[in-house]
Amino acid sequence: EVQLVQSGADVKKPGESLKISCAASGYNFTPYWIAWVRQMPGKGLEWMGMIYPGDSDTRYSPSFQGQVSISADKSINTAYLQWSSLKASDTAIYYCARHPRVSDGGHYFDYWGQGTLVTVSS
Amino acid sequence: EIVLTQSPATLSLSPGERATLSCRASQSVSSYLAWYQQKPGQAPRLLIYGASNRATGIPARFSGSGSGTDFTLTISSLEPEDFAVYYCQHRSDWLYIFGQGTKLEIK
Description:
Chain A is mainly beta. Helices cover 0% and strands 48% of the residues of chain A. Chain A starts with a strand and ends with a strand. In chain A, 36% of the residues are buried. The model of chain A has no long low-confidence stretch (mean pLDDT 96). Chain B is an all-beta fold. Classes of the chains: A mainly beta, B mainly beta.
């Protein structure tokens, strides 16, 4: 069974750093892109970026480029989303999601993590 | 940049009724459109990919149609568990775009 299990909720102060994780199981981790998606309180879904664990090729949305860093450790089947200096506006739920390896139905996300709530408040 | 516009923003229906949700793209996306369902406090769940292909485990009452710029998600007979927010999604030039969502609420 494919599972993406994310790290727990976190509360940080503005300016602090944070790294959240997404542990994959039930499939071969390396040849599937893993994306991160933000959902601000009461709002819709925003794609932030994604990583290919096989070679760490990473793509970012222009809206998030330079604001966050995405990485992966294929030795432990885990992807990460990292901030070096959080802002109050980073308060949101962050989801990781898997992109299917090959599909003639286009590009989408077939499995999702449960979400990690990040709260940034002084 | 492609924009996906969903309508209506809110749809109020009763269990047993048919639901029709729309997603319009600002330019053609061929058949490369996906639909997701999100219930309160839960992660999104893939319903439809390639405009009309049901994802694994999705009930047959959910169907997707359309191509080009106009797409429809239809729920043939609403069950109580179907009341949720629905999003459409497309990828264009390494940019994954979501519609703003349609909230399907109980009338």
